[in-house]
Amino acid sequence: MKIGIQSSATTLDIGYAEAYRLFAEAGFESIDWNINDALKPSMITNGTYVGNNVFEKDIEEIIEYFNVELTEIKRNGLEIHQAHAPFPAYVPDKPEVLDYMIEVYKKCIMLCQEVGCKYLVIHGVSLARKDRGNTPESVRALNDKLYTSLIPTLIDTEVTVCLENLFTGAGGICAGVCSNPYEAVEMIDNYNAQAGKECFGLCLDTGHLNLVKQDVRYYIPILNKRIKALHIHDNDGLSDTHKAPYTGTIVWKDFCDELRKIGYNGDITFETFNQTSLKVIDRELLTPWLKLICQIGYRLKNIIERND
Q1: pLDDT tens string 287-302
Q2: What b/e readout covers 227-253, taking b as 16+ CB neighbours within 10 angstroms?
Q3: C-alpha span between 162 and 203 (Å, rounded)
Q4: Cis peptide before 83 (omega within 30 of 0)
Q5: Which of 162, 43, 53, 44 is closest to 112 using CA atoms?
Q6: What's the pLDDT tens digit per position in 252-294?
Q7: Distance between CA atoms of 234 and 35, rounded to whole angstroms?
Q8: Domains of the chain with bracketed CATH
Q9: Within 10 Å of residue 100's Cβ, how many Cβ atoms?
């Protein structure tokens, strides 16, 4: 069980060499690799993605594109435990986006396989309140198309695609795909059955659970061993602020206790970019914030493993 942190926004703010050095010096051992920085959400939603991103190239060129960053990760002794794929996968009234993103995700799977990254987080499609062109049934069909289309690529790899419990904020915060634990279980089990092997799991996002008022004591036992990766962050239950644990309203002892009960032994990975971005904090505070977040990670690990 390693302590990890997402690569963005720190790498964007201060560059690969300094960011990965600071991560290692703070005590982090692994990375949630934000390859989604290479294809930003705005490019997908405004239609400027075609011919404008590296994922249209072959796998050798994609690896070359990321080589400088990969070199710094390796230089600092960090492991890529999981990666975050570009999102969204779907834009209402633009069905061509989903077809395009499926091809992007196939390239992301291949990239993860090449660099030894076990888990790839791919956001599913949620039904937003403002979306009057879809129904719960049509959104489920979109998700089925998204994930089952990846099975032929996943079969011959050691990569596991992780769905994520999401919320949607369009028209007010409400539950998104996989926020209902029974829906998440049914989707993951169905896709794995079609694949004939364990190709799919869940990345549990603590902040998203808190926003949709889901209790970890209820959610985690239902998902159980399907939980393969974590996005750990806190908030006030009202907005997705991505802050460090103990700075919001999540009960972290409950979180740790439930992970212990299911025998979770994956990485403790933080998605706390609002406290490691220079858009939010002074450069002088970056190092102490990174060290504090890492110390929190080791504390959570000790509680889970009952080493305290």
Answers
A1: 999 999 999 999 999 9
A2: bbbbbbbbbeeeebbbbbbebbebebe
A3: 5
A4: no
A5: 162
A6: 999 999 999 999 999 999 999 999 999 999 999 999 999 999 9
A7: 23
A8: 3-305 (3.20.20.150)
A9: 17
The letter for the amino acid at 81 is H
Q: Which amino acid belongs to residue 224?
A: N
